[in-house]
Amino acid sequence: MSSAASAMRVKVVGLMFGLSVMSYFDRTILAIATPGLMKEFALSEIQMGLVSSAFLFSYAILMTPGGWVSDLFGPRRVLTGMALGSGLFTALMAWAGRPGLGALMGIVPGFVLIRLGLGVCTAPLYPACGRTIANWMEPGARARAQGIVNAGAGLGGAVSPVLFTWMIARYGWRASFVLSGLATVALGLLWLHFVRDRPPGTAPAIEPLDRPASLPWRTLLTDRNLVLLTIGYFAVDYFEYIFFYWIFYYLSEIRGLGAQQSAWGTTVLFLAWLVMTPAGGWVSDRMVARYGRKWGLRMVGATGLALAAVLLFAGTHAAATPAVLTMLSLALGFASCADVTFWTATIEISGEDVGAACGILNTGGNVGGFFAPIVTAWIASRAGWSWGLYFGALVALVGMVSALLVDSTRVISRSHARQKA
Questions:
Q1: Sign of the CA dihedral 179, 248, 246, 226?
Q2: Which residues of 116-133 are buried (b: 16+ CB within 10 A; e: fewer)?
């Protein structure tokens, strides 16, 4: 591979990393603005919860269609539209209340509508990145690329509390949302300018716009390996979303660390995710090179989830704060290592329909993410927080079993699907 081609691949992965960072920044900054919004517009916790969940609703529903669109039109167009649309709806949060949409249709409906729009625009992000990785990266480098892209979510989640709090204090919440949206739009324009669907000098077997519109949905949805990957990724996201939604509360209220210590502890966990996700990709590629695609990805995925489950269980029993933070950080970190293998295996098995398959995978993951905060709180209210976390560890073990059963050497074929039909 020439140095120019290598440099371009680095640029492509770097821009996807940036899109991942900004996506998590844009979707999480509402939580930072929430206390001020609740006071300004006299919103209840239930009303604010409805506003917050609106994003995940449209995001999860449109994940699979978003992946199909990236296969049909190519990831360059789709990720450009994703960034421009996400930036627009992030900026429009400034006019979701009063004055703005709230004056026309009510405060809560105004905010819900904007958050639904943000979810619609953001949905194709990771499936389209999966399509880009399949197009641009050699098989032996795909896990590393996926790890870097996924790590962007960790960085976005880690910096948003500190940076957006500073922005609100300096510029106010409305201008801060606008500035965040403009940054996302600027990144989308960079993507449009620098990136093409495939490396120069290569061409797909079927051009995106010439791809047959009739996708073998039945074949994809019933493929044994894609079903196993989706079940496993349900477990991965369930495990990770416990940390996203409840870890600050667990540290501050259950462990009694206080707000400041809990904030730093939460940041440490996200930093572990940031570091260990690309490390998991690097290890996965090394294991694939040594043991083959099937067992290389199996070992990293299953081992990561097994260690995550054990460390979460041990972390609930630790007494000293440093030990608790260390074990919980490693638990999230090892889960993120496994996370990479599910995406990489999906890219490897999905043939011509990488975007659609990645959309199915991520839909399953977000369903797990949707249930995680609800089920964890329900168990905790009846049996205590330790049992809520124990159940999360059990779900991770289900994901481990799923990872061990996946054969990522078996590629889904459109021609085979047509022959069967």
A1: positive
A2: bbbbbbbbbbbbbbbbbb
Closest by CA to 76, choosing from 212, 208, 248, 219, is: 208
SS (H, E, C) 192-237: HHHCCCCCCCCCCCCCHHHCCCCCCHHHHHHCHHHHHHHHHHHHHH
Question: Which residues have a Cβ under 8 Å from the Cβ of 343 and sit 6 or more positions away?
Answer: 126, 130, 146, 150, 358, 361
Calpha distance 411→401 (Å, rounded): 21
Nearest one of 315, 347, 351 to 330, comparing CA atoms: 315
Instruction: Quote the pLDDT of residue 183.
Output: 96
Six-digit token string for 58: 């449209």
pLDDT-wise least confident of 212-216, 235-239, 262-266, 281-285: 212-216
- Could you check whether the bond before residue 127 is cis, i.e. omega within 30 degrees of 0? no
Q: Is the pLDDT of residue 205 over 50?
A: no
Closest CA to 64 of 108, 127, 140: 127
Calpha distance 305→307 (Å, rounded): 5
Q: Residue 21: which pLDDT band, with cuts at 50, 70 and 90?
A: very high
Class of domain 215-414: mainly alpha
What region, left, alpha or beta, does residue 384 occupy, with left being phi > 0 and alpha being psi -120 to 50 degrees? left
**Alpha-carbon 75 to chain mean position:** 17
Q: How far are the Cα atoms of 129, 151, 415 from residue 65, in angstroms, in the given order?
A: 14, 24, 21
From first CA to last CA, the distance across the chain in angstroms is 40
pTM: 0.76
**Over 60: is that where the pLDDT of 417 sits?**
no
3-state helix, strand, coil in the chain (%, to 5): 85, 0, 15
d(CA 65, CA 342): 19
- The Cα-based distances of 328 to 190, 236, 237, 260, 310 in angstroms read 37, 15, 16, 18, 10
* Count of Cβ atoms closer than 10 Å to residue 141 Cβ: 17
- Residue 78 to residue 74: CA distance in whole angstroms: 7
**CATH 1.20.1250.20 residue ranges in the chain?**
7-195, 215-414
Residues of the chain with pLDDT > 70: what percent?
92
Residue 262's CB is within 10 A of a number of other CB atoms, namely 19
Residue 16: name the closest of 120, 131, 119 by CA.
Answer: 131
Domain at 7-195, CATH class: mainly alpha
